[in-house]
Amino acid sequence: MIYPDSFEEKLGFNQIRQKLKAYCHSPAGEDWVDRMRFSSEHDFIRVLLKQNLEFRQILEKGETFPSQHFLDASDWIQKIALEGNWLEADEFLQLAYSLETIIACKNFLVKNAEVYPELFRMTEPVTVTASLVQNITTKIDDKAMVRDSASVELGRVRKKLRDEQGRLRKLADQIYRNAVSESWVPDGALPTIRDGRLVIPIQAEHKRRLKGFILDESATGQTVFMEPAELLDANNEIRDLEHAEKREVIRILKELTDSFRVQLPALKSAYRFLSQLDFVRAKAKFSLDINADLPLLTDKPELVWYVAKHPLLYLSLKGKRDVVPLTLELNEQQRMLLVSGPNAGGKSVCLKTVGLLQYMLQCGMLIPVSDRSRAGIFKSIFLDIGDQQSIENDLSTYSSHLRNMNMFIQSATDKSLVLMDELGSGTDPDFGGAIAQAILDALLQRRVWGLATTHYYNLKLFAGQQPGIRNAAMRFDDEHLEPLYMLDIGKPGSSFALEIARKTGLPKSTLQEAEKLVGKDLAGVESMVRSLEKERQELSEKIKRMEKQEIELKQSLSRYQTLSTDLETRKKDIINRAKEDAATLLKNTNREIEKTIRHIKENKAEKKETLKVRKNLESLTQQVEAPKKETKPVQTLKEGDRVRIIGQEGSGIILTIQGKNATVQFGLLKSVTKLDKLEKITAAVEKEIVARLRSAGINVHEKRTLFNSTLDIRGKRVDEVLGILDQFMDTAILLAQGELRILHGKGEGVLRKVVRDHLKGYKEVASIKDEHIERGGDGITVVVLK
């Protein structure tokens, strides 16, 4: 149920219908726009939304989908349905074109059934085949003429007609030349056709000289158009043949129409599919215009929206300034929201946004919210907004509001959404506020869902104390006295009436008198609300800064732990290798000594053999002795130098030098390292690092040149995404990239979830987040590497 009857006009949905019609290719598609209605059937709405989403994906991918000859066949179908009636040749040609479009659309969706399952299901009633198109094209050519080959009789008649026309032209040329030679023909005049018969123009004074019949004359009467007697039989024969041709063409068209009359059920289903597809495409194009998406749909009332925008406001401000999005929540515990704040602060826009988006959703349209949002289904929506004064019914604005409130209390249920603008206004504030509070209380007892806007303090206090309803405020810049159009849930808003009045230039004495009349208590509440708002903003900013610092600290700690683990692992490897080398060397030394002693004994210490053995021992001594360190030229390091730890590939920048230690910035990590363990990155060192990587089969320069930090995986299947993602991440880590972007689109969020879950397995990943809303939002994942 939708109340009142002017619901669509009050929320602007009639404008959305007009925009959808502008995108339709056919009147039949526009009829679907007119028939679009609010529904509370969850499964039906889900199908409509999925169709909308899938066609939006077709448009986003730029796939080749038929877009021509979306024709309305309702008139043709009516003519075919009448026994004895027939379609003209040009109508059959248009029918063939549109049937080809239907078949092409079906083939595309059948081929992509797994990608677009709901659009594929639309093709199931379509049974027309290419044979129907062939039936038309074999009889009618692309100039909308029945072909000579359409029947044997038509071919015979047309051949004879062409022969007779040729004979007639020859005979007419002969008579015309004779008349010209006799100067009977006006200068420049040629044989022509009158009443379907070939005639020769003759000057009026010579009409008796040519034997024949006068069929017409010029406006001045100086020229007559005569059918020579010799042409009479030929003209009659041609006329008879033309009638015979026409009769045969009609017979062929009737026969062709009869064959299509048998196919009427299939034709109706096919053109219903085509018109519905036209409608779905129009919704998809509008979805792209307003950046709409599919929220998580539930089969019960619920409203948890992130980044919600009013679609018409978004379109009107596009290219000028951004629309401030709304984030709001109505749930089982808090079903109602009371929005307060200054005039022109966005309260009514907030209410209209809720009503319009929920109505669009339940009409089967995607809405401009984040796909993380949750949206439920309401059985009915009630609206009270604007001036509803009625002269005919002798109702004032306030009386009309009260009549609507009575309707809400009597008809609304726990599955209804009630929207009330400026609740309680239009009468004495004391009585209006009291009645409005009683109405709110009655709706809460009926567990109604809803949103109301107000300026009344008693309602703000009521919402702050009563379970089931929450306060919300439209934020206001009290320093510049400008609305921020941002919705804050959990606290009431101030009207800022005195401040705005002061800005408009009212005399100071007048404002002071107003403050006295308001009273200290009310002014104090206003002041307290503003003070709390200011403190809340400051606290919110502090929390954001602390969260940012905490993230940076965690990243630094993670990098330090990783580096420490790597260094410890390398240290153990070096010590183990040294131990193994020492053990091997000691074993070889002992073996050589024993061998030397045995050799001396066997040769009884002959001088020649002793010298030989001594040389062998000296050689072994050189092997056992620790190799002397190569003396390197002393290098002077200074702040700002790019260095690396000797033997490693990673590099950093020297920040400060204190004695024998230096503080080096390695990426996001700062480390204090001894100067003698550092090596300045020179061209030779850079070459060494590149050569080391190239020896492993890696061309760093080539990879760095070809690497693109943005990976586009839209439209790809999940099973092929992971391999592509791994290859992309391996290259990025090798090249020490800082920030990456993975473009997966929004859709239902499947690709986004798969990508982000997989990225969590990389220890090199520092953070994963959404792109800025203006540059793609959660349709793009931004990856920061350590």
TrEMBL record:
PROSITE patterns attached to this UniProt entry: DNA_MISMATCH_REPAIR_2 (PS00486), SMR (PS50828)
Enzyme class at the top of the EC tree: hydrolase
Domain Smr: 711-786
Methyltransferase recorded as keyword: no
Pfam families, alphabetized: MSSS (PF20297), MutS_V (PF00488), Smr (PF01713)
UniProt feature coiled coil, ranges: 522-623
Molecular function in Gene Ontology: endonuclease activity
Binding site for ATP: G341, P342, N343, A344, G345, G346, K347, S348
HAMAP family in the record: MutS2
Entry-linked NCBIfam families: mutS2
Function: Endonuclease that is involved in the suppression of homologous recombination and thus may have a key role in the control of bacterial genetic diversity.
Subunit details: Homodimer. Binds to stalled ribosomes, contacting rRNA.
Name recorded for this polypeptide: Endonuclease MutS2
Gene (UniProt): mutS2
